[in-house]
Backbone:
């Protein structure tokens, strides 16, 4: 089974990276698809679910770890439902076959299935540039605003990771490969990284049958 | 110009990684060669120089940074000579043309030449296994001893890096790619990583002429 998880800093192009890597390997990629399926199964408003998706998992673990977001019990119940569903769906996807899963603590959730875990990051300048490039018309964030948003989202991702797994988010020890996308076109990086992934899985399976 | 620097944890196979990468790219690789040349130029005993090579650079910067090893002034003068010569030789090598340089703070020393900086690391278990595999007959280190040596050498590397440059050793922000070699055969990883390097340099030179 070839399961690849992509963890990424906001603005590093990690989502594009994951999608292109999946295309190159001819395997499915799950990102918004996960959210869509949860929304469908649970009947929540899709935008609402997308917005809260990572905070949601965070809020779903308060009883085990003794931490919680200050949300009302009604919203918390919704978060719990979403987080539980996400975890289930991530495992279902992985059990179905080869795939790339972006974010949502999949590396920690799937640890027992030995995925290839990749972290995608970039310099602040490069992340600001990417955010500006992909901003839709009418979005007028200042650099200061963007940096604040970036930091907040990455902090949420780190907190989520801390709750679903034992390995720290963003630390190289937690990953098999960390790729700095600063000033690089992601598209043309992919053939080499697909070859890396293919070799990595070959070595894992050779080891298994030794 | 294609200059690649390899920084590595002790026992991660970083030296093999650098040498094989250089072979795949058909460019020279400098490691002990640097030490040899220093030894030749300065007439020091080669084993002595090899043993102190990284500590040497560390000791060469006490006046600028206000830190020093507790060494006698005579030894310190030798260290200073070695460190200065190493820096010069690293820059000479880089100016001569495409190459891979392993360790010795080359990523920091050559920052203005925009090298591709790669960090090679591995899990403790994997590093112990590699150390055992490459130990010569008669070496009977316990795991505890090996771990102590590993830690000490990596600490020296980190201190050296801190002194020659402004970027922290071993933190992903300081590198373009971080490769975890745990339980992997390095040889078969190389084609993908050579392709990554080729693409990285192509993108850099495209940018230059844009």
Residues:
């Amino acid at each position: 089974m070839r399961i690849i998880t992509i963890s990424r800093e906001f603005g590093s192009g990690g989502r594009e990276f994951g999608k292109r890597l999946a295309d190159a390997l001819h395997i499915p990629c799950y990102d918004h698809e996960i959210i869509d399926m949860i929304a469908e199964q649970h009947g929540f408003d899709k935008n609402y679910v997308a917005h809260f998706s990572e905070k949601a998992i965070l809020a779903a673990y308060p009883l085990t770890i003794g931490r919680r977001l200050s949300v009302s019990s009604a919203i918390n119940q919704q978060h719990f439902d979403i987080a539980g569903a996400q975890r289930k769906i991530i495992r279902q996807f992985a059990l179905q076959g080869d795939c790339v899963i972006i974010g949502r603590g999949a590396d920690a959730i799937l640890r027992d299935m030995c995925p290839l875990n990749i972290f995608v990051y970039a310099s602040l300048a490069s992340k600001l540039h990417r955010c500006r490039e992909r901003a839709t018309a009418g979005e007028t964030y200042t650099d200061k605003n963007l940096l604040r948003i970036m930091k907040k989202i990455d902090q949420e991702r780190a907190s989520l990771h801390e709750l679903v797994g034992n390995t720290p988010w963003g630390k190289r020890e937690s990953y098999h490969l960390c790729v700095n996308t600063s000033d690089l076109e992601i598209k043309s990086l992919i053939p080499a990284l697909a070859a890396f992934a293919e070799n990595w899985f070959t070595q894992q399976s050779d080891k298994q049958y030794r």
